[in-house]
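task queued by scheduler; priority normal; single chain, no ligands, no partner chains; default sampling; output format set to structure tokens
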Amino acid sequence: MASDDRLAAVLFDMDGTLVDSEKVWSVGLTELAAHYGGVLSAQARHAMVGSNMTDSMRLLHADLGLPASVSTDDSVVWLETRVKELFHGGIEWRPGARELLAALRAEGVPLALVTATHRHLVDVALLTIGADNFDAVVAGDEVDRTKPHPAPYLTAARLLGTTAPQCVAVEDSPNGLLSARAAGCAVLGVPCEVDLDPEGVTLVGSLLDVDVAYLRKLVA
């Protein structure tokens, strides 16, 4: 908590939090599974939400029973190429996300985007979200350890010249909540594709239920 009880910054996850891109990833993953002649199970897809690309591809390969000779690196390239095409078509905002970003910018609250998605895809997503909305961006391939490790949120706070306990992190995935909590952030959970554990976090139905005053209270 800041010594003057003021919110220092808000750190936003991207997929499923600001934009409804988890559905886009689902399209790509379904097509990738079909490329290998299989069907991705709902359980495997659920486990991928908020996971990094390497772990997601390991889950997909295991779920499909692919032989070790099939490279997960090749799967990453295939999936990211397809998702980039889909991102270029535009991504839908999550309810209330655009309005909350605008309200925070209007009050001069520093903002960071903190995502497990690789930077070349983030740059395409930012065509929808707006790169000028953020004072810092931490992509999944720009840190040594990604979510659920605390490194992404610790890095974002450092880039904004503050510390994680002075920040609110906004997340939609279990891995994201673990990362933000481990970093010491006040954590706001907004479920999208999966249910979230309420322990140690504040849960809301959507960002339509949140304004700047609400976020300030989380660090007060």
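post-processing summary
- The mean pLDDT is 94.
- The longest helix spans residues 72-88.
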